[in-house]
Amino acid sequence: MNPHVTVSTLREMKKNGKKIVMLTAYDAPTSKLLNEAGVDIVLVGDSVGNVKLGYNNTIPVTVEEMLHHTRAVSRGNTNALLVTDMPYLSYQLSIEDAKVNAGRLIKEGGSQGVKIEGGREFANTVKALVEINVPVMGHLGLTPQAIHKIGGYKVQGKTAQDAERMVTDAKVLEGAGAFAIVLECVPSDLAQEITQKVSVPTIGIGAGPHCDGQVLVIDDLLGLTDGQVPSFVKRYANLKEESLKAVKRFRNEVQNGRYP
Ligand code: KIV
Predict the structure, then answer these.
(1) Which residues, in sequence order, are CB contacts of 91 under 8 Å at separation 6+?
(2) Is there a catalytic annotation at residue 108?
(3) Rounded to an integer, what distance in angstroms lies between the CA atom of residue 138 and that of residue 174?
(4) How far apart are CA 22 and CA 248, in angstroms?
(5) Which of 55, 88, 168, 232 is within CB 3.0–4.6 Å of 206 for a Cys-Cys bond?
C-alpha cells in the first residue's frame, strides 16, 4: 500500500518533478475509489453545491454541508491528503470565524487541510490558520465564490497588470504559509511563471500543463455532469449515458414482466 500523502510528500514531489494528482470527492465510495487508484489529494470541493446539491453555484454552500460531506469522504480515505474547501462567508468576515470553521472541518470532519479562495487579502487568515496547525491550500485565478464580481466563468490574468498581481498573490500566499496553490482558468504561460516562482506546488485546472499537479471535478472526468462542461475538461468515461441505459433497461424489464 502507498504511504500516506502529507504536505511534506507534496513538497518532495515538486522538488523531484513528480506530478501531483488531485480529484474531488463528495462521498465515501468515491473517496475509496480515488484512494484505490492512487490519487494524491482528495478535495471535498464546495463544487458539491452545483455538482451534487443542485445549487446554481458554490455560494449557498454552508459549513454544515461541507462537514457532512467531509465526514463521508474521510470514512473512505486511507492514503490521500484530504483537503476541504472553506465555503463562502466561512472565512471572509473575520480571522476568528476562519479559525473556528477550519478547526471544525479538521476536528469534526476529519479533514487534513483546508482550501480558501483569494490572494493577499487573506494573507493574515492563512497565517492565523497555519499557526493553529491547519494546513492551508490557496486558490487563485477563477475563484467561483467571487463569480458575481467576476461576471462569468472566464480565464483570469490575461492583462499584464492582472498577471503581475497574480504572481505577487502567489508569493504572498507562499510567504503566509500555504502548502500549495490551485490555479484555476489561468493562461498556461502565467501558470508556468507562478510555478517557477514559488517553492510550493501549484495544482492547475484549466491552467495548462506546466503546473506541479492537476485537478478535475470527479463528475466531469467520469462524464456524469449534466449539460456543458468547461473546454479544458477531458472525459475519461461516459457514466451518465451508461447509467441512463441501465435505468431504462430496468424500467423496460419491470414493465414487461422480465424482471425479476
Ligand atoms: O470546488 C472545487 O471543486 C474546486 C476545484 C475545482 C479546484 O475548487
Answers:
(1) 97, 98, 101, 102, 116, 122, 125
(2) no
(3) 9
(4) 33
(5) 232
Map out the domains of the chain as residue ranges: 7-221
Residue 182 parent element (H or E): strand 180-184
Which CATH number is correct for 7-221, 3.20.20.60, 3.40.190.10, 3.40.50.410, 3.10.310.10?
3.20.20.60
pTM of the model: 0.98
Maximum CA pair distance of the chain?
Answer: 67
Ligand 1 site-directed mutation target among 47, 145, 153, most atoms within 8 Å of CB: 47
Q: What is the pLDDT of residues 98-130, one digit of tens each?
A: 999 999 999 999 999 999 999 999 999 999 999
Burial class (CB in 10 A: 0-12, 13-18, 19+), 154: exposed
CA of 155 from ligand 1 middle (Å) equals 15
